[in-house]
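Worked example 2:
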Amino acid sequence: MHNIESVDLSKYNTIFCDSVQALEWAYNNGLSKSATIKSSSPAVLLSKKINTCSIEDRWTIEELGKFQGTIKKMTEDVFDAVLSVTGAERELALAISKSAYHFQSLLYKAACLDESDFNESRLFIYVDGKTGPAGNMMNSPWDQLLMANKLFSMVNYKLKNDEWKMLTTQGISYWQRFKVAGIETVVYRLAVKLMRKLPNWIFTKEILIPNENELNIEIASSLALHGVRITEIQVEPLSSVENILSDVNTESLYKVASPIMRERVEEWVSVSAIDVVMDLFKSDLEKQLNQFKILVGGWENVIATSNRIKRAILINSPGNIKGQALAYVCRKKDITLISSQHGVTIEISRAHSMLHVGFDNSVADIMLSYNTKIVDIEKNIYFDKSRHYTVGMPLRLIRMKNKKAMDKSIPPIVYVSSNEYMGFSVSQTTDYANAKAEQNIVTEVLGRLPYKIRYKTYPLDNRRFPDMDPVLSSIEEFNNIEVYSDKIDMRYLISEHRVIVTSQATSTLGWLVMSGKPVVFINKNNNSPLTDDAYQALSKGLFVFDDNDKKLHEKLRYFLSKPINEIENAWENKKTDREIMIRNYFSAYNGGAGKLATQIILKECFM
């Protein structure tokens, strides 16, 4: 990487950069305004002052659909191939297969490059600044992909006046938080603190909790009342992994996985990128193997076995390398690994089939789910290993129906944005296309309604682009839209509004539906769309609009311009269909999930 001062910017005609601020600096320091800026950033690409080229233009909806549609089979093939390696067991095969899935993000970017990028002069302006827990995700991996190009240079630009905030409950009163969290959370927190101080001989049963979610908290509080010790645990990092899975090495893994990946790489990237991408894949395998060993050793140090105390583990979202390593240790120690559902998505989303390798039931011995729809789906995935039980949603979601007096100064309609820029994701459209679609909702619908509207931004933890979202710039043109950009979860704000508008089949929808407030859902067919059967059910229970309809914006404007009372009456008329929809796709029961799950766990793990 070069020093900023040492680079003559005027000699570069093609620049990779995802920051308007960095480009403004570059123009002031010699970069020609006629230089082509290759970018993924919506803010850069929508700027009229910059000579831009969308680096992701090669990805049409059809091409990206083909790319995504072959990922599930690829992960299954890699899983089977790794299992053939001496010493490699199920959980390591899952970790490597999941790694191959994540590697598609880099392959996606590599496929954006053409031959000239590998042998002609190129400059990459790397942007540094404040980010979330995942580290700096504001730059594409051009430095890794183009390192062999002798005419490639990179400079580091440090963002000025930089700010980035994380999700918080600051500003939310203790009473509001308690109303959402409930007495179960108080019992859980107290149980963890008190039981930590009590001697081991008091207990014969113990639940270990590496992380939590709403349902796990409710289950653990109920288990505590049944005399089960509740203990929070964290993995301890190791300094040496020499004796862990010593039979398995990077070469053996690469030998079986590389033919599968190479065939895919050769299909999607230019000739000069093939060997570079494969070298990066091998390097990634080495990192994943080492990380798996570190985590296995760390969990072994944390989880003890006892002839007197029976133990089980209750975890949230274990379908990642940390959970896979934990599952390996649990299997070796004959400890049951239990996972509970952490949101409604799989049962309604058409785009999640390529993520099967990361589903919770790929590692959990027992799955506790909200509804029967997700159970039916998970039972039929290639990686399923769980015993499945349906227990319903946690009370935190059920309690969303509680009403409070409306503050007339707060807009009656809230648009809950799910516009999350992610690069390669379940969307078949690029971040740039998604930004333009969101802008159209603002300019063609929200800004033209006869009501005050609140636009609730998506509370991103991990910063994807350095500049302000251009959608927010569009909102500034309209006096009737107020932006709520504080990093507060929507669950604390739902009760303030009368009508909720949102899009995309994500877990956010579960919170909104359970509020009992009228929900207007925009189905985006190329960005986290509903499954066909979910579309039919949700169309009966909610107000569903489809973006395939050429009159989408016109119909949305007409509907949302109606008197609020009229929308609420139409919502009430859907009550019977909505109850059926909720039972099938959201919660099979109207409460009692923690108690039901407790009986299952006591019988399965502690009898």
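The longest strand covers residues 122-128. The longest helix spans residues 271-302.
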